[in-house]
Amino acid sequence: MSSALILSNVSRHFGETRAVDTVSLSIEPGQFIGVIGRSGAGKSTLLRLLNRLVDPSAGSISFGDTEITALRGRALRSWRRDCAMIFQQFNLVERLDVLTNVLIGRLAEHGFLSSMAMRFTDEERAMAIRALDRLDLVPQALQRAGTLSGGQQQRVAIARALVQQPRIMLADEPIASLDPANASLVMDGLRTINREDGITVLVNLHTLDTARAYSDRIIAMRHGRVYFDGTPAQLTDDVVRDIYGLEGLREFDEAVTSTSVAPVRAVVSA
């Protein structure tokens, strides 16, 4: 039976800054969750806490009977395999070919020597090809990763996460630097994986219409706290105004100029 991911009064402080402040959430299996909010609202820190790239200053995170905040060593590495992370800047090895970059997602299953030698089985190579096929990247399998477009590189990063066979995928602003066409391909890929594989997806997004179009549930953060948690239909114009404020809306307008989304003024107008 699948387990829920539970955050109980989780906080993360950086000096005097409360990046995440007493957040409690229950994330049910198979949900597609969009996380929105102004820059500095705590979105990225929240995802890094879930993956344990940073440790909480207070509170606890659990997945079923497992206390995530207590994991160390091999158990922590296993959790990071189960809770895959996709970054805005792709984090590919540009000099290696696409197939090898995807196979890197299997290194957690290997011993030290095997990992250092990058030795993969035929079954793992087949798994990587299947992942690339799902993201329409098989023709690029032997191409050097650094020669791909940004959108293609992000889909390679998704394929790499997919071969980890995770239970949860976290994506931190995966389309922030992409043009509209590539942004759609990346989001479509994440949604397909979510629906076909039942993998829980949490994705930080900087555009409201993308969050509304793809998410089952939207979480909005403000000053490190959860300000809104509901369905896209419940994210009313008044709530959006409160989340972003006038200065935040100007930030959104700047983001809109590089995407295909409708102008934010239209989104939040009365």
From TrEMBL:
Gene3D superfamilies: P-loop containing nucleotide triphosphate hydrolases
PROSITE patterns to which the protein is assigned, alphabetical: ABC_TRANSPORTER_1 (PS00211), ABC_TRANSPORTER_2 (PS50893)
Entry's Gene Ontology molecular function annotations: ABC-type phosphonate transporter activity; ATP binding; ATP hydrolysis activity
Record key words, sorted: ATP-binding, Cell inner membrane, Cell membrane, Membrane, Nucleotide-binding, Translocase, Transport
Domain of life: Bacteria
InterPro entries: AAA+_ATPase (IPR003593), ABC_transporter-like_ATP-bd (IPR003439), ABC_transporter-like_CS (IPR017871), ABC_transpr_PhnC (IPR012693), MetN_ABC_transporter-like (IPR050086), P-loop_NTPase (IPR027417)
Residues spanning the membrane: none
Gene Ontology cellular component annotations, sorted alphabetically: membrane
Pfam family, one: ABC_tran
ABC transporter domain span: 5-248
Protein name, entry field: Phosphonate/organophosphate ester transporter subunit
